[in-house]
Task: structure prediction
Amino acid sequence: MSLTRTYRFSAGHRLYIKELSEQENFKIFDACSNPNGHGHDYSVQVKVAGDIDPETGMIISLQELDGTVHIVIDELDHRRLDIEVPYFEENQPTGENIAKYMWERIRVNLGDKLIHLKLSETSNSYFEYYEEDDYPYEH
Amino acid sequence: MGFKKLLTKKIEFSASHRYWNPGWSEEKNVSVFGKSAGPYGHGHNYSLEVTVEGEVDAQTGMIINLYELKSVMNDVLSDFDHKHLNDDNPHFKDLVPTTENIARVLWDLLEEKLLTNPKCSLYRVRLYETNDLYVDYWRK
Result:
């Protein structure tokens, strides 16, 4: 059994490789390399799995889940990721890397309970991150 | 290689509930369940998505007739829709009506009714409490 909760945050970013010229960056990243950056309203679906605690009727207390996820969201919300968040100074702030970063930060507190993370950058693009062997659905 | 064939139908219902463990003090209930422990309950617009698995019948082109599935779901939901789950639904007399427990109870009720149809089996019950929170229940 799993429980999935959606959270939202907004952040700015620019995709570019420092060593390359603006024209070369534009070839690779197109409009995402705009020198002054741009932003998105992200939403992230966090899925946790486990057995129902017979006393509370819950897999996880929502206070614990919200508290854990908000630690990460507070680091990202209303920030320019590639300038203000150290991890993204070294790693491109793409949906793929943001999803991986959130996964690793949330796992610190939730451990194996976290089984799937889905990050939507727009209503048309989303990124999923999970350990294939632990995912309960057949593919 | 085989292909997986799934069909999902969604039905919405509205119900109220209260999170309360009678074995605990009022302080503990409030500290664990927060606002959800309010004495008179509160409500949600739930959305139930039932997924069944099976082979596609060559003559009808269906895994299950949607009218049959709709009727099974509505039968089961008659004890949930516009009810106070703690007070009106016997399954929650001694069970906290969390989204997790409601999904599990719905699985049991749906599975029993679907047993009459040998051509399909229940694959997943997904229950949304709000747009931002849902539970999946399945059995391997």
